[in-house]
Amino acid sequence: MFVRVRQLGTLSSLAVWIAPCITASFVGAISVAVAADSKHAQINGKEYQVVHADLKTEQVRLFFANARGEPYRTLPTLRAEIGTALLAATNAGMYDRGKTRPPVGLLIANGKRIRDINLGNGAGNFYKKPNGVFFVDHGQAGILESGEFAKRYPIEKTAVADATQSGPMLLINGAPRSDLPPTPNIRSAVGVASPTEIYFVLSVSEVSFLELATMMKDSLNCTDVLYLDGAISNMDTREQPSKAKRDRYAGIIGIVELAANR
To answer: Engineering a disulfide at 87: which of 71, 205, 213, 255 sits with its beta carbon 3.0 to 4.6 angstroms away?
Structure first.
């Protein structure tokens, strides 16, 4: 779900706007327990979109192409295909330059490996190591450093259904990285607060890597956070569908309503 929060200095001075019939509690951090609803958040003067996924009641999946083999590319295309069962969606990992914009690193969508893990070196945010992999495996989510993921889930044995590789990692075992450039920008990231609690965040305001990591640690209780991308990032929700047809992605992360809850 989305929550809108205005914070002035500390978490003790919070004014919360929430949609009817939605409840939220605050005990040192934002706590959310219901499905997707479109709200924004302001924390320390910076505005964010925050999407919460609970794997006990929702699915988080990676999407690349439809049954005809046609890549989705855009959030509106995915929504048109899936409809109201799609609670929310955002861009997955980064893409290489070129007409087809293939993913830079690992992408597994519904058990199909689109691209293998990339442990190489290069220029750009993806290669600000350590980079990492966000994955969902048998109803539990995690973020691992890329090399560690490759060890735990080798190509010939992995049964992970959905995964995307990106970089840099912003929060590792609760420790924000302080070695990254302080330049502010629009940024998006995925964070894991527990094996079943996932947060997707898009900064509406320009923020640094450290600001984003610290917010997701202090306000969302995330222990690990992986950067997804910058200014091309976008969010789509059932209440506020994205119209960004120009923004084309190698992969898309979607939160899907379980059939039992429809």
So the answer is: 255
**Dihedral-angle region of residue 79 (phi above 0 means left; psi in -120 to 50 means alpha; beta otherwise):** alpha
Phi (first) and psi of residue 80, to 5 degrees: -60, -30
Angstrom distance (rounded) from CA 126 to CA 202: 17
111 Cβ neighbours under 8 A, 6+ residues apart = 159, 161, 162
What is the Cβ-side half-sphere exposure of residue 47, based on CA atoms within 13 angstroms?
4
Using CB atoms within 10 Å of the CB of residue 129, give its burial: 0 to 12 exposed, 13 to 18 middle, 19+ buried.
middle
What token pair was written down for 225?
């956070």
DSSP string, 77-112: HHHHHHGGGEEEEEE-S-B-SSSS--BSS-EEETTE
Model pTM? 0.85
Round to whole Å and give the CA distance between 118 and 127: 10
Name the β-bridge partners of 189: 201, 227
Cβ atoms of 237 and 88 within 8 Å: the answer is: yes
Bridge-based pairing state of the strands 175-176 and 188-194: unpaired
Q: What are the two backbone dihedrals, phi and then psi, of residue 202, each rounded to the nearest 5 degrees?
A: -125, 125
- Spatial distance between the Cα atoms of 40 and 11, rounded to a whole number of angstroms: 16
